[in-house]
Amino acid sequence: MRTRDWPIRSKLTALVVAPVTALLALWIFATTLTFGPALDLLSARTLLYDLGRPGETVVTELQRERRLSVVQLAGTTELPALAEQRQRTDRAVAELRRRVDGEELRDAADDLLDARVDQLVTALAALPAGRDFIDDRKVDRAGAIGLYSGMVSSAFQAFAGMANLAEPDLNRQALALTALGRSRELLGQADALLAGALAAGRFAEGEHTQLVQAIGNQRWLTESAVADLPEAARAGYQRLTEGAAFTRLRAMQDALVVANRSGRPPVDAAAWQASHDAVQQQLRDFELAEADGLTDRSVPMAVRILVRLAAAGVLGLIAVVISVLVALRVGRTLVRRLSGVRTAALELAEHRLPDVVTRLRRGEQVDVAREAPPLEYGHDEIGEVGRAFTEVQRTAVQAAVDEVTLRRGLNEVFLNIARRSQSLVHRQLHLLDRMERRAEDPDELAELFQVDHLATRLRRHAEDLVILAGSAPGRGWRNPVAMVDLIRGASSEVEAYDRVDITAVQPAGVLGRAVGDVIHLLAELIENATAFSPPDTRVTVTGEQVANGYALEITDQGLGMSAAALESANVRLASSPEFDPAQSARLGLFVVARLAARHGVRVRLRPSGKGGVTAVVLIPTDLITTEPPAGPDPAGLDAAPSGPDRRLARGLGTAARRPQPFTHRPAHRRRPVRPTDRHTGAGPGAHERAGRQRNGCQRGGRPVR
Questions:
Q1: 348 phi and psi, to 5 degrees?
Q2: What is the value of pTM for the model shown?
Q3: Number of folded domains in the chain?
Q4: What does the pLDDT look like over 630-677, one tens digit per residue?
């Protein structure tokens, strides 16, 4: 049988229909001739001899003990016969416990019967405590009857749980026998009530009503139960009721029903006892005989069910074997070929395509035909899937090539636009520089400073594009810059620079190769802090030497971020991911992550104590040096950047020239700038900055923040 070129529909039909047909046939046989009913029928004998007969003995002994307990409560002395009866009851209970703890009974019982047997055992466990109450006369006759009747009721609930046979006629007969037992229990309750009244000489309050109810319920339950018995059993019960004992007992019951409710019972105690005991014994013998007959009839029926089930099982086994052979033959072919397609798909998704993208990003050339070889899997539908997947591979690889090419082109566009913008901004800054030097009017100079500040921010945004395009901004220094000047240079590139407080900053310097990027990184974080905090709050910047570098903390007093948002932001800052245009609202995070990764700087966000966010910047030790000396440095002058970078070097002091309201700051932050101030010569271009700060102080009189 050549199955390789079968249509996929035929393969699936052969793979599914044959096993399903066989299993369906087996299901029909199994549901029609189920194994469960046969087991129930076979277990009927076990249930009868391990639970039914011991349980019935316990019920009989409890009924006798109940009658004697009521008689003792009706009198004033203890009855020796009650003690003897209690011993017989205890032996019957012990035997029942031994039987119900056996594995055979528990295996034959279902969940319902298990639960009811446990309830019976629990109810019998309360018997010693009830006897103590009776001996101490802490209960009346009605309470004693209720105590024993509750235990007997638990036993009959267990008997009812045994009537769970699959054969309807047998199950109906089992329920009828259980009902007859309940009617006999009602007769025992009436006997106990009457025995107490005879011993006391009169009915207690409510006892006559209970007696009448018990007699009525017993007669109704007996009539209902006998109606469900087989014809032969009904005839046998009818013969019992025609006996002298039944006749005398019924007559005395009729007399009790119409008796005076508070007087002495109108029956002779000995006559009642003799008739009651005779009827009880005859009913008990009748029930046990019928239960034995029911069990005997269940065994042959169970054997017939098992024979039919065995025949069905053999046929079902043959069908299953055939189905398995067909399924193995067809399924093995399908699995082998489909596994090949799956392996190729996983290889493409997990290895080849990521490798292609990585090589493309490194600038290597990729051969699409070589990276997506054709897959041959025959000429059926699976083969067509293989050919389609080959096209998918080629399309995916080509798409990766196109995407990287497009990304590279976009980066070049960004870089080109950014470089042009940088050039224009630098030219604008040079022009502003000349205009600021010639300006004499303080108001005009203040406006020029505002334009200067906007141009500085434009330059930073242009550098953002350069960084996102994967290039370096182009600014650099040869000599170290003081940390405080570096922080001021960063705050000067922020719109709300007047809200930034530079508090405790321990002396240190940053190597020149990292100055521009660290300034840019801090400016992004400071601007983020001012943008996401109320305009009437302050943003503080602190710095201190730590064991593994220099730590800067930028703290705002905004609404803060959720734990999930902080975690997401910290992941981005730590991993320096590829720029995703869909995340354009978080450009600052990408820029900070790129700059931090370039120099090994670690940036992490955390909640601040005032409800906002604190950005912690850890500059590694290899970028930290001692703070450079104040004042112009000839070496620094020689190394000062020229062209556009000269303006950023001058920006380290721009924050000192911003118009700000007078606030209570530390003295070194409020005093006007003097040419000899240490901050005027802290960085490259210090000579130019000092001269312009003098002009600003003479013209505008603005203090340094």
A1: -65, -50
A2: 0.43
A3: 2
A4: 644 433 333 334 333 444 344 444 443 433 333 333 333 333 332 223
